[in-house]
Amino acid sequence: MSADPSALGYVISHPGRFLLDVLKGFRRNQGLLLAGAVAYYTLLSIIPVFALVLIMLSQFFEPQLLLDTVSTILVMAAPIRTEVLSMHLEAFLSHWRVIGTMGVLLLLFFSSLAFTVLENSMSIIFFHRQLGQHRHYLISVMLPSGAILNTLSEY
Predict the structure, then answer these.
(1) CB-based burial of residue 115 (10 Å sphere; 0-12 exposed, 13-18 middle, 19+ buried)?
(2) Whole-prediction pTM value?
(3) Where are the domains of the chain?
(4) 117-126 pLDDT, tens per residue?
């Protein structure tokens, strides 16, 4: 990907003006809002993924060993609430079939939201590259769900 020599020359000769233009464009496109939305939905997707990984590991390792390991890590992250979180994790592992099903559904739901927000953010960032025809909303929702199901089927 080669840069236009005149554009590169402008950036090199006017770095302050270029930075100001970038910041104005970032603000005009609500970059902080978009970044926050992507981060929010990504975090909402991580919790069900963590739950599913914990359930899968409980099929190969002793649940008590998993609880001890996670509790040790939780002491570093949330030292005050470790006992409460460990208690919830123990209940979580004892009801893994119900929670696993809900976890998959939540993972699909929040991941589709995360990918939709990410797709919208990318279309705003690269607005000069938009195609004349847009993808149908259901296809945009089904693409990440299919990718997640494909990844889960490999395990």
Answers:
(1) buried
(2) 0.52
(3) 30-154
(4) 777 777 776 6
